[in-house]
Design goal:
Blueprint (H helix, E strand, L loop, with lengths): L1 E2 L5 E2 L4 E15 L5 E6 L6 E2 L4 E5 L2 H26 L3 H33 L5 H30 L3 H26 L2 E3 L4 E6 L6 E2 L6 E16 L11 E6 L7 E8 L4 E2 L13 E9 L11 E7 L18
Antiparallel strand pairs: 1-2, 3-10, 3-15, 4-6, 4-9, 5-8, 6-7, 8-10, 10-14, 11-12, 11-15, 12-14, 13-14
Length: 326
């Protein structure tokens, strides 16, 4: 006999009755940054929704780090843009003018040196003057070559290696900015899922660290029942089978559930199992999950689980969103 949701017994369906207690998953919420707590926005017992802000850290230091990283990234972006743009027309014009001036000076120095040599042949000047003119001509020629090389560099523009280095430095600056922004975002502690605040472990002004939880969140939807399946019934139950859950607190209500986990190993019956005849037998731990939108199934509550036999194991609802409580 199996009770139906209408309260009438159905004698045509074989069933298994198990006993267990409601369990909930708990999350220890902590900041990833070490800083003083600025505010905690919830109290113990508050029901919170997914992504709701629960607490904040002191932010000025990390905001300044974000501003610094942003400024450095912008400066490097301008440096890269300058290299990619190449030489400006004004720079090219100046280099051409410098080369022309240096070429003219070199020609003048050569002409002066030639005249001094002619005068020396006529004994109208001294050898020392000729040597000075030769040195000036050589110096002017070297300056002209340097001006020509400068013009070639200006026309060629920045080297590809310099542009690649500047681009890599810009990527590094942007990565540093993203890291600074992520650290700033980590100063806000949000709820990973719908639940109830169970413990408030730290207070505003306390120094939060990654190793120090701030809040304990009980995730109330779905909940699960830890029950124990006798070894002779092991082949009758499979994950995904539907189940019904009843409690003494709400005797008229039936909660729909599903078998979500069946232990692969046997163990001796725990002492807290309520059916005396099972105490000396080997059992397998069974977890029956159930949606709990009204938060009526609470941690530790004793319940009765009824599973109809012969039903197909269709597979449990998706683990990431079994109750649609995003």
């Amino acid at each position: 006999m199996i009770p139906s949701q209408s309260g009438r017994a159905d004698f045509s369906i074989p069933w298994i009755t198990l006993y267990g207690n409601v369990e909930v998953r708990e999350v220890q919420l902590a900041f990833t940054e070490s800083e003083h707590i600025e505010a905690i926005l919830v109290q113990e017992g508050d029901k919170v929704g997914r992504d709701q802000v629960l607490a904040r850290l002191h932010q000025p230091r990390l905001k300044a780090a974000v501003n610094e990283a942003q400024a450095m990234a912008e400066a490097q972006a301008q440096a890269l843009a300058r290299l990619e743009a190449g030489s400006r027309p004004e720079e090219i014009a100046k280099a051409r003018a410098d080369f022309a001036a240096a070429t003219a000076q070199a020609q003048t120095a050569r002409d002066t040196h030639a005249r001094q040599q002619s005068l020396l042949a006529k004994k109208l000047t001294s050898p020392e003057t000729v040597d000075v003119a030769r040195g000036a001509a050589d110096s002017a020629a070297a300056q002209a070559k340097a001006a020509e090389a400068t013009l070639d560099l200006v026309l060629a523009g920045p080297r590809r290696e310099d542009i690649a280095q500047a681009r890599a430095e810009l990527e590094a600056r942007r990565a540093a900015l993203a890291l600074a922004e992520e650290r700033l975002a980590d100063t806000v502690l949000s709820a990973p899922a719908e639940g109830i605040v169970r413990d408030r472990l730290l207070e505003p002004g306390d120094l939060a660290t990654p190793q120090s939880p701030v809040l304990t969140l009980a995730m109330i939807d779905p909940v699960w029942v830890r029950a124990w399946l006798p070894e002779p019934d092991l082949g009758k139950i499979a994950p995904g089978m539907k189940a019904e859950i009843r409690s003494d607190s709400y005797p008229e209500k039936v909660y729909s559930g599903w078998v979500g986990y069946l232990s692969p190993t046997a163990e001796f019956t725990p002492k807290n199992v309520e059916s005396p005849e099972l105490r000396t037998r080997l059992v397998y731990q069974l977890r029956v999950f159930s949606c709990n939108p009204a938060a009526e199934l609470r941690l530790g509550m004793p319940v009765t689980v009824t599973i109809a036999l012969g039903q197909p194991a269709a597979g449990a609802p998706p683990n990431d969103n079994p109750c649609g409580n995003r």
